[in-house]
Specification:
about 150 residues, alpha+beta, minor pseudopilin epsh fold, 8 strands, about 35% helix
Length: about 150
């Protein structure tokens, strides 16, 4: 009769249950983390391309609005986008350091837009990241200033 009054404590987890749970979580994290890092790199690469496109479009638009030439500089070593002339870019841009910028421009990576929106340079700018095989290319046409990704 006394055995009815003894209660077995069923609260909490045993050490074995806790270890099995941690091992399962570790395996899932090991499988998911490379995919997550690749996804994050693709998002950063797309963001860098949008910053570059935005700065170039803004410079071209401001050159036409103001009726004067505007030049945009893309510094490949510091990943900074600046304008040579005041008022040709509302604010400087900084591209994420994990992004590599390459181009086939002969000297410096600068693009000048005339008051008509045309340019005297043509070339390709390639954005890439060490953490993904994906690359984003930006091409600007000679004379017309037409841009395509």
């Amino acid at each position: 009769m006394q055995s009815n009054f003894i209660r077995k404590s069923d609260r909490g987890y045993t050490l074995t249950e806790m270890m099995v749970t941690l091992i399962i979580i570790g395996v899932i994290a090991a499988i998911a983390s490379p995919n997550f890092l690749g996804w994050l790199s693709r998002i950063r690469l797309e963001g860098a391309l949008q910053q570059l496109l935005g700065a170039i479009n803004e410079t071209q638009r401001l050159a036409m609005m103001r009726g004067k030439s505007c030049r945009i500089n893309i510094n490949r070593s510091t990943n900074k986008i600046t304008a040579n002339t005041a008022g040709c870019l509302l604010s400087d841009r900084a591209i994420d350091d994990s992004i590599t910028i390459r181009s086939n421009f002969t000297s410096s990576t600068s693009i000048t837009f005339s008051y008509k929106g045309s340019t005297t340079r043509m070339g390709t700018i390639v954005l890439s990241s060490d953490h993904t095989d994906l690359q984003k290319c930006f091409v600007i046409s000679l004379g017309t200033g037409i841009k395509r990704v």
